[in-house]
Amino acid sequence: MTSPVTIDKLAFGGNGVCRIEGKVCFVPYSCPGDSVSLLVTRQKKSYCTAEIAEILQPSPDRVTPLCQIFGACGGCSWQHIKYPVQLEQKTQIFYETLWRGARVDANLITSAVASPLEYNYRGRVQFKVSVTHGNLSIGFYRNGTHEVVDATNGCPVAKPLINEIIKCFRTVLADFDGVKFICQISIDTGELGTIAIISYSGKDLDGIRAFLAGRSTELKPCSGLFLRTGHRNLIEKVWGIEEVSYSMPHCKPDQAPLLLSYLPGNFAQVNQIQNVAILSIIRHLADFNSTDKLLDLYCGNGNFSIPLAANVLTVLGIEGSSDSISSAKSNKDRNGLRNVKFICDDVKNALQRLVRDGRSFDVILLDPPRAGAGEALSDIVRLNPDKIVYVSCDPSTLARDCGLFAGHGYHVIKSVPLDMFPQTYHLESVTLLLKQERL
What we know:
This protein is of the alpha/beta class. The protein contains nine helices and 22 strands. It starts with a strand and ends with a strand. The model has no long low-confidence stretch (mean pLDDT 96).
């Protein structure tokens, strides 16, 4: 056990940070300002990790977590920290990451945009399911394991409707003989209804279909139910609605919102309020002209392409998922748009074809997966856009890519971190890059 130490700050990954004999130490579930004694659990050459043996003096910024399984569940890591402090720490982490990775000055970065909801914000949740000694558990994996921690009171960061539906599933699935073959229940809430997907590995498909169809009344808060089966993760409808829908604001306040949908099992943002906020930030940073040609990479279901269409002359959206592109095309038709085109292709392949064809774009918007732009970056540069707007869910890969863009003459003009995931260390951001000669 160590002598008393004070936690200085938080790190990306969720741990608190202090120093023990000059060496950086990472401490899970600690809070800046905590005075603690620690038990070192792992020693490395340049750092160590430790667990709290005793909180000698709690930080004034420490609060009681709302969730009864906080600390066991591998989801949230910061419920014990006041929300304003979470925002301050996320901003600081973002500053430090962009400076280390791309030498971006802090004066080009805003404070993190707060989520209006600290809890009850998640509209998409995946619950893990297990049966041990005849006891049904529906919850989340214990930190670092595949053991399911039973969330008997639901999840406080999920929307209340999701918790209501999971409560119904607890009652219904307790009567299903094949429940041991169910490993996950995914729930997506939308403005026109809520869809659940049950992942089933058993062989009695007719049996589970008949069981779920016969219990639809007891699952009434759910508007649609799907079954995911087989090694190829095939999804089939059991009953109810077929898409999850939500609205995005038009660029003109006097125009009605645009309705967008996606198919069950496909990607969508979990925090719809902040999804709208990201759209607003994109519009502000890009400062579109009505003559702009926009290229939207990793466009998904047209989440940004569709609402941005009214800001520009044309939009080309590229996405590798055929289901997402199918939804994007439906969304385009549903909203009566004629200046938008969607292509299903690997982003790098599509970019290389655009370069060969001599295409040009005024603005390139990209919202890549956590791995970042990767090999597509060099082809983005070859298209020579006036502006690059980069939506990122990972500060580390954003910093790496901003450094690479800088090597091609594109520099960060402004970056706006945004809290999509309160109570966790995760952070979304929107960054504007321009060529140096255009500064």
